[in-house]
Amino acid sequence: MKIHQKEKIVLTLDAGGTNFVFSAIQSAKEIADPVHLPSNGHDLELCLQTIINGFEKVTKQLIDPFSAISFAFPGPADYINGIIGDLGNLPAFRGGVALGTMLEEKFKVPVFINNDGDLFAYGESSYGLLPKINAELEKRGSSKKFRNLIGVTLGTGFGGGLVRNGELVLGDNGAAGEVWLMRNSLMQDSFAEESISARAISIEYNNSCAEQWRNSQLTPLDVYHIAKGKKQGDPKAAKESFRKLGYALGSVLADVITLFDAPVVIGGGIANGWDLFFPEMLLQLNSSIADRNGKTIPRLVMKVFNLEQPDQFVDFVKGDLTHIKVPFSDRTVAYDPQKRSGVGISHLGASKSVALGAYAFALNELEK
């Protein structure tokens, strides 16, 4: 599906705990001035009316009719049926709220609600890293094409999504890609998000820095600047906090890639510090593991490339293409024996990828 050529209009919502931002997308471009409204998450009726009002304000800016509403909303939720459960940052949602059905009845169009990690992955598979990879392959005359993508977001939390051959993998319970719950390789009795998040960087820094530099108010950006020598502090501890995040992230991604076999795109605010955590992450992905007799084998079937390094991106795209002779024939066929994956960061930005993912998901569903 060439979704960038579609002319349908889709209304979108960026739902935060404090503010809601409403807009409209057509041909993968925002065509309305965003409408910002307080979420009013403490009062269910007021919050729901705010959502209706926000979409109504956007529609007043449109000349043509819209075809769907599609957006990410916090969980827990039954996303497939558009029912929102008990939300931590929007406390008025308790016991199940049929948000999707409410909006369908109000606006008379299909409504699609998903997790932001899922839509991030879908946006990147449609407009971001995946088409960039495949465009380079095509330019080089390669017959190889990557059809799947793993997307993860690093910010306040650790989210994820999976895309298989142009379709979002939701799972039977709408809960596929919940990477934050995977086992934490640094703390065996904990979950991955405890070491892969904004709070993890700040906590690790304060736990390992010299006492004079401890400050519970430091953000990951502060810690990054300390590591780079742009802010006073303990640079060794700052670098170590990002290294530990890279270790934990590499361990999780190794398991996900083993099961799903796809390139990885990373988004969210912490992704901007990729130069500090990528080395340890890639070291884990390309490391070895041993059997009980001490014999080692590669951690993954495939080699993993750093797609943010231009030379590695070229090597990733180039692969090991050769031509082999067909037995009992004069013909030859192209053969690339190199199994490979790669990890890059989002160059669209997580927020834009989520919005475009919501748009692309709606278009894909409308075509079914």
Give structural notes:
- The protein is α/β, with parallel strands linked by helices.
- The protein folds into two domains: about 5-115, Nucleotidyltransferase, domain 5, CATH 3.30.420.40; about 120-350, 2-Layer Sandwich (Nucleotidyltransferase, domain 5), CATH 3.30.420.
- The protein is built from ten helices and 18 strands.
- Strands 1, 2, 3, 4, 5 and 8 form a six-stranded mixed sheet that branches. It has a six-stranded mixed sheet with strand order 11-10-9-12-18-15, with helices on both faces. Strands 6-7 form a two-stranded antiparallel ribbon.
- Helix 3 (about 115-125) packs across helix 10 (about 350-365).
- It is globular.
Give the SSE map.
Elements: E1 9-15, E2 19-26, E3 29-30, E4 35-38, H1 44-59, E5 68-72, E6 77-78, E7 83-84, H2 99-107, E8 111-114, H3 116-127, H4 129-139, E9 148-154, E10 158-164, E11 167-168, H5 198-208, H6 220-227, H7 235-260, E12 264-267, H8 274-285, E13 288-290, E14 296-298, E15 303-306, H9 310-318, E16 322-325, E17 332-335, E18 340-345, H10 350-367
Parallel strand pairs: 1-5, 5-8, 9-12, 12-18, 15-18
Antiparallel strand pairs: 1-2, 2-3, 2-4, 6-7, 9-10, 10-11, 13-14, 16-17
Helix pairs in contact: 3-4, 3-10, 5-7, 6-7, 7-8
